[in-house]
TrEMBL record:
It comes from the Bacteria. One of its GO terms (biological process) is cell redox homeostasis. Acts as a transcriptional regulator. Probably redox-responsive. The apo- but not holo-form probably binds DNA. GO terms for cellular component: cytoplasm. It is found in: Cytoplasm. Keywords: 4Fe-4S, Cytoplasm, Disulfide bond, DNA-binding, Iron, Iron-sulfur, Metal-binding, Transcription, Transcription regulation. Upon Fe-S cluster removal intramolecular disulfide bonds are formed. Its cofactor is [4Fe-4S] cluster. This is Transcriptional regulator WhiB. PANTHER family: TRANSCRIPTIONAL REGULATOR WHID-RELATED. It comes from Embleya hyalina.
Amino acid sequence: MTERIEIIRSVRATWTPPPAGACASVDREVFLGYPGEPAVARLAREEDAKRVCARCSVLLECRESALAETNPVGVRGGLTPNERGAVRRRRAHH
Ligand code: SF4
């Protein structure tokens, strides 16, 4: 748990939205979780972020880039960390 909190803090401190991304003009807090974020708040925030990603011109590139990392924080390419993990696992078995 402590390790995860450190990862969240690190990503929060260093994440810069891609300049061409729709998220570049949106409050970055929409995309980033925070330690201790309640599940209800997280789910609502993730849906807000996904709506931004849905109108992003670099969605596919961003998604592949996020899938190539194992960053467990934030919505990227329209996918939550759990969804990215599921895609990685599916790809690993094909
Ligand atoms: S797909 Fe989402 S996270 Fe990626 S650049 Fe676009 S808006 Fe940002």
